[in-house]
Amino acid sequence: MISTTNVSLRYGKRVLFEDVTAKFLPGNCYGLIGANGAGKSTYLKILSGEMEPNTGSVEMPAGQRLAVLKQNQFAYDEQLVLQTVIQGHQHLAAVMLEKDALYAKYDAGTATDADGERLGVLEGEFADMSGWDAEYQAAELLSGLGIAEDRHQRRMADLGASEKVRVLLAQALFGNPDVLLLDEPTNNLDAESVLWLENFLDSFQNTVIVVSHDRHFLDAVCNYMADLDFGKISMYPGNYSFWYESSQLALRQKQDVNKKTEDKRKELEEFVRRFSANASKSKQATSRQKLLQKLTLEEIKPSSRRYPYIAFKPEREAGNQLLSVENVSKKVDGQWVLRNVSFTLDKQDKVAIVGRDDRAASALFDILFGESTPDSGEIKWGTTITPSYFPKENSNYFQANDINLVDWLRQYSVEKDESFIRGWLGRMLFSGEESQKKPSVLSGGEKVRCMLSKMMLESGNVLVLDDPTNHLDLESIQALNNGLRDYSGTMLFASHDLQFIDTVANRIIELTPDGILDRRMNYEEYLADEVLKTQRSKMYQLA
């Protein structure tokens, strides 16, 4: 258990949160949510002791251990991978180190009686902490997160960025901590690793507090939402989808001043009944259903969040010939990321491009738009196609310092009237003075919203998007998800957001080092198909 009492934090005149009192109990996984800049990561740092609040205190029972997902990928470069994971239990790691030093003294014949007594104490502590199983448990965590056994004894410096993130996640999970703080734990994880983590946390019996932009993950692991809004934290039973739908219900009911209280109560009861019946995970099934059934009308409140309006409308209908890709192969940094890729795109296909190597989808998309050339093979667009592209790397679009956002967006619009352009910016949350910002000073999320505005103005009948949810807050992700789900044209896209893929895609193409797998189904069906699992495994082993 961990709690905060009257915690406040201010930066000058800006109040991030004020008198926050919250209790996080064992057996629960709390999703800490809030708009960008609300202070989610800062609150985790206060809980972990990394930051001190201006007022208030953090309490945790004596003897309990807290673990945090570290963000510095280079902090352990000189250590072996397995040792890095064990560092997650600092006391155990310290005992192991001191034990080894004392046994080295015995080997050298320099040990004293005091050394022997100390060694006896250390061996007792080591056994109490299940030290004999430490390396096995660490290896099991690493394997579950996709780190092959032959890499467990390598130095951290020898691993790639994605692998380092997985090791640091294994470090946080190691040793059954009493309180686990996870800030964006699914970043750089492939679908299999995310599902493994979901199952791990679902059976975890202690306290978990997680910040994530992955709605599928929040839905799968959380049975409470801790909503950081209006400078306070409010606790809501249920997962993210329940919180989102209930906050929207509360907003509609607040706006409907003519609706009777009894009608609103019946609407809430029906809403709760529907969500209560959908508790699929064991942690949710045992606690969420009872809590939701007790929820009252007064307990759900409209959020202060603002959602951008995202809607893509093709200017003209595409013909039958959209896109043909024939035997395309491409090396990146001396490695094959595309090999003999062939497929055709059909009308109203919404194709998710997936795979373990993020470079593959980006390489394919760049080839489609002439930003790079394949080593072999060819692509052919249909004559009626107006494609629109969202690249993963967009910095080249935002170099200008001599224009504001109105002028930036105007260059992509047929209609040049300023009020028209301001209207488009406003729907993407750039209103008033925000529209006067220079493109070069925008945050990552703001740049994404600008690129989406550009795409909407282009009115393409084929959209290609490379990781469009990256840098977006949950509100913008939800709006984008809804906009692309309702889009009537054809799409190719890559994303790390499982819920985004599952709710938008009707076709999955997986790029492997030994070719592709191409199936017309949603993503959950694709991941669950046992025949496909075997095929995928063989294709990666052959490479």
Write out key terms for the chains shown:
single chain, about 550 residues, alpha/beta, Rossmann fold, six-stranded mixed sheet, 19 helices, globular
Write the layout of secondary structure elements.
Layout: E1 2-11, E2 14-24, E3 29-33, H1 40-48, E4 55-59, E5 66-68, H2 81-86, H3 90-107, H4 113-128, H5 134-144, H6 161-173, E6 179-183, H7 191-202, E7 207-211, H8 215-221, E8 224-229, E9 232-237, H9 240-255, H10 261-276, H11 282-293, E10 323-332, E11 335-345, E12 350-354, H12 358-368, E13 376-381, E14 387-390, H13 405-410, H14 418-427, H15 444-458, E15 462-466, H16 474-485, E16 490-494, H17 498-504, E17 507-512, E18 515-519, H18 523-528, H19 530-542
Helix pairs in contact: 3-4, 9-10, 10-11
Molecular structure report:
The chain is α/β, with parallel strands linked by helices and 543 residues long. Among the domains are: 2-64 and 214-299, Rossmann fold, CATH 3.40.50.300; 323-398 and 458-542, P-loop containing nucleotide triphosphate hydrolases (Rossmann fold, 3-Layer(aba) Sandwich). The chain is 40% helix and 21% strand. The chain is built from 19 helices and 18 strands. It has helices at 40-48, 81-86, 90-107, 113-128, 134-144, 161-173, 191-202, 215-221, 240-255, 261-276, 282-293, 358-368, 405-410, 418-427, 444-458, 474-485, 498-504, 523-528, 530-542, and strands at residues 2-11, 14-24, 29-33, 55-59, 66-68, 179-183, 207-211, 224-229, 232-237, 323-332, 335-345, 350-354, 376-381, 387-390, 462-466, 490-494, 507-512, 515-519. It has a six-stranded mixed sheet with strand order 5-6-7-3-8-9, sandwiched between helices. Strands 14-15-16-12-17-18 form a six-stranded mixed sheet, with helices on both faces. It is globular. The two termini are 47 Å apart. The model has no long low-confidence stretch (mean pLDDT 89).
